[in-house]
């Protein structure tokens, strides 16, 4: 109860009209100091990362249930975001440099500590846990993480490793953004 109250206080939905160079203007999410921006124009992971850098940010760092839940709720509550382009949104998590070691780009090597974010699904009788480094469509495996819609009718948006050259929507994060209302509460 106490936690829920804190979460709802922190994650105030903000609907800034920030000009976007491309694509529609979609509602942002603000956690009191960092601003999360959502994009539905499809890009591969590297292009998405570069676009976030151009905007003065990084691909989103999602390393807690609190941040993950706030982003999932935001996506599910907003019609334009609900159905991700390419079936998911790229964020900063990847193991491109070091197989099996998941870090967040643009964070000086912050490693994943929130492992509950990974998707776990039932396929027939089997439970498939992500990341599975699927090599079916690319022998190099999967090194970039998305928030995966997974189920069209009941979108999930849990973590899934995917092929970095797939083209998807993406989430940028502007750390300590001036557009984040009450400023830096951290
Ligand atoms: C993913 O698959 C690639 C290609 O088989 C392999 O080189 C790599 O070590 C695998 N990564 C992990 C974490 O198992």
UniProtKB/TrEMBL annotation:
Alphabetic keyword roster: Signal
Every C-type lectin domain range: 36-173
SUPFAM superfamilies for the chain: C-type lectin-like (SSF56436)
Signal peptide start-end: 1-24
One Pfam family in the UniProt entry: Lectin_C
Record InterPro entries: C-type_lectin-like, C-type_lectin-like/link_sf, Ca-Dep_Lectins_ImmuneDev, CTDL_fold
SMART domains xref list: CLECT (SM00034)
Domain of life, source organism: Eukaryota
Protein name from the UniProt record: Perlucin-like protein-like
Lineage, highest ranks first: Eukaryota, Metazoa, Hemichordata, Enteropneusta, Harrimaniidae
Gene: LOC100376401
């Amino acid at each position: 109860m106490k936690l829920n109250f804190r979460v709802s206080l922190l994650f105030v939905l903000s609907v800034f009209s920030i000009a976007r160079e491309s694509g529609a203007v979609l509602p942002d999410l603000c956690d009191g100091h960092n601003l999360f921006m959502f994009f539905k124009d499809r890009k591969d992971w590297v292009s998405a990362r570069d676009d976030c850098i151009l905007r003065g940010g990084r691909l989103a760092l999602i390393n807690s249930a609190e941040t993950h839940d706030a982003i999932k709720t935001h996506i599910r509550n907003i019609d334009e975001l609900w159905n991700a382009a390419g079936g998911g949104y790229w964020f900063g998590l990847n193991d491109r440099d070091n197989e099996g070691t998941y870090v967040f780009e643009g964070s000086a090597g912050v490693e994943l500590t929130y492992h509950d974010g990974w998707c776990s699904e039932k396929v027939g009788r089997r439970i498939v846990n992500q990341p599975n480094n699927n090599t079916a469509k690319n022998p190099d495996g999967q090194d970039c993480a998305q928030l995966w819609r997974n189920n069209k009718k009941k979108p999930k948006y849990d973590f899934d490793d995917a092929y970095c050259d797939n083209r998807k929507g993406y989430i940028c994060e502007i750390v300590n953004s001036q557009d984040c209302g009450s400023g830096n509460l951290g």
